[in-house]
Amino acid sequence: MSTQYKNLSASTLTPDAYFKKLQIAIVVSEWNTAITGALKQGAFEFLINMGVKEKNIIIHEVPGSFELPLGAQWLAQNKHIDAVITLGCVIQGETKHFDFICDACAHGITQVGLQYNKPIVFGVLTTNTLEQAQERAGGKHGNKGIEAAETALKMLKLRREVTH
Length: 164
Known about the structure:
Elements: E1 24-29, H1 33-49, E2 57-62, H2 68-76, E3 83-91, H3 97-116, E4 120-127, H4 130-135, E5 137-139, E6 142-143, H5 144-163
Parallel strand pairs: 1-2, 1-3, 3-4
Antiparallel strand pairs: 5-6
Helix pairs in contact: 1-5, 2-3
């Protein structure tokens, strides 16, 4: 559980010449657009600030979080894509729909990363309320889109270190 009122999006990562060579895809759910749009903007700006070239950031949308794994898979199939960041927001409702969507999304995204041996980052908010989602999409708990972008870059640096 995150610390109350702590902005978890503060990063110690610094720009790196290696990042200029990377192609990063972002696949974003159209559902809860106000939230996912903020996540996408945070991820995009972070990647640019770390040195990823704007032309090397590929952004595509899917209808909802359930479709994120397939969208990520299609992007991961491209050998020029180094990592895929998935961004979505599922807010708890009155039915078990939330549980099924979250479980399928998390499992699917994990499987894509393992299948294609590249970072497929889970940047999907799974909150109880809209307020909690807003707090994590640029509010008092930071922007999870930034954290997802940072995770992608850190994983790519790790891959470079352990495979070279």
